[in-house]
Amino acid sequence: MNFRQTLTEIQTILDTVDHDSDLFVEALQKQAVQHLSFSQISTVEFCQQRYYLQYILNQEPDPLPDYFTKGKLLHRLIAHGYQAQMAGNIPSLADLEEDLATANLPCDHAHLTNALQVYHRHRWQTEQVLAVEHPFVLSIDENLPPLVGVIDLVLQEGNTIILVDHKTGRNFYPYDELQVAIYASYIQAQYPGYECHLYYDHYRWVNNLDRIRKPAFQRTRVEVQLDHQYLYRQRILTAASLIHRLRSSSTPSHSGKCYRCPYRYNCPYSYRENTSD
């Protein structure tokens, strides 16, 4: 199947929503436009049943884990901070904490308050903030659905474009080269001749910043390995084939990693495992 028309359709959606990342994701789902993303690829690799629940049935985890709410809210608050910085206004920590209080969501606000302090201390202070929560579409093969994604932060420092992805969690965890390779491919096409640097800014949930044994923040420079391009492509091709089969009514398999899955209470496989002796 040739996906040129799909690429044009997604580009039209991007223009229609004025590159608003939330509206873009919502429109893709509502219009059921066929596409791939790093999240879809990593999900189907983790467990086909989770992919089926999340992307085909469009279910939310039930109950919704606290870390889902915290992670989304921290992303939103950090985005507001960099959007203000892009407009020439550096928000104070008090401003950020007021935004958090206004959100009034049922999650651990102590973790978020500490994460905001960490963000304010370590925020990027570069020549220019080019984009915040930047949605994109990229074609790597006419016979594959277009790849879409949202880059948390795009910065410029001289002749260097800096991409930043924000991560949250109880611990720091290894990055995935494929996500970075996808982002880098898009940016290098948009900014030819510029050097591209990629970073993960990882915020660790902590109860008390004054009583921690390991850092609450880690900034990691990520390298895309040119000799791994074949492996990146094979991962995408394999995932695309699995996704096509699942969307063509194939029965999803189950990985058995339920303890790591936020959908374990939605999943009939997990239920059987958790109730059997």
Features:
six-stranded mixed β-sheet; 277 residues; Lambda Exonuclease, Chain A; alpha/beta
Give a description of the structure.
- The chain is an alpha/beta fold and 277 residues long.
- It has a domain of 176 residues: Lambda Exonuclease, Chain A.
- It contains 10 helices and 6 strands.
- Strands 1, 2, 3, 4, 5 and 6 form a 6-stranded mixed sheet that branches.
- Helix 4 crosses helix 9 and helix 5 runs parallel beside helix 7.
- The longest helix is centred in the N-terminal third of the chain and has 21 residues.
- The mean pLDDT is 91.
Structural class: alpha/beta
* Topology, number of strands: 6
CATH architecture of one domain: Alpha-Beta Complex
Helix content: 40-55%
CATH class of one domain equals: Alpha Beta
Query: What is the averaged pLDDT score?
Result: 91
Distance between the termini: 47 Å
Give the strand content: 15-25%
